[in-house]
Amino acid sequence: MDKLNELISRYDLPSLGDFEKDFGRVEKVDNYILSEFRKKIAEKIDYFISILESLVQPDNNLSGIYESRYLSDEQRQELFGIFRILMSYSRKSSSLSTSYDEEKEAEFIKDFYNEWQSIKPIMENYLFLLSDMWKKEINSDDIKENYMG
To answer: Would you say 58 and 146 are in contact if contact means Cβ atoms under 8 Å apart?
Structure first.
């Protein structure tokens, strides 16, 4: 933990508690701990990319097709903007996984953590709205209109 605290201080990273609150518990604390932090972030990024992808471009995804009907064009544009940000960080994380560079790992963690603080409330709002939408009664016309079989 001394190594971790030293890295947190040196690179002005979020505390372990703050990080784990947003991205989950980091199990492995070793010489490449920042890589483990980045991997936890990448898991969260990938999770939200899959949600956003089904909303912005639902294709044959039944939940995405149904949910996207409840979004305005402006909301879809906002979600696409978040999708682009997450994709950029996803690709950056992939590039960092090719070789360990402590400074670049720290920069990625710090940058994304700060970005996530502005994305998180927007995503929470949309997910609440979508969750609430599923509680509403579905009429047979909606089912027929969305059925792709």
So the answer is: no
Q: Using CA atoms, how far apart are residues 76 and 73, in angstroms rounded to an integer?
A: 5
Task: Give the global pTM.
Answer: 0.87
CB 105 within 8 A of CB 38: yes
The most distant pair of C-alpha atoms in the chain lies apart, rounded to whole Å, by 61
Higher pLDDT, 22 or 30: 22
Whether 148 is covered by a domain: the verdict is: no
Per-residue model confidence as pLDDT tens digits over 2-15: 888 999 999 999 99
94 phi/psi in degrees, rounded to 5? -60, -40
Domain span including residue 101:
2-136
Q: Which two structure tokens, joined as six digits, stand for 126?
A: 């949309």
Examine residue 40 and state whether it is found in any structural domain, yes or no: yes
Q: Where are the alpha helices (DSSP H) in the chain?
A: 2-11, 16-23, 33-56, 62-68, 73-96, 102-135, 140-146
Is 91 a domain residue? yes
The contacts of residue 100 (CB under 8 Å, 6+ apart) are: 32, 35
* Structural domain count, the chain: 1
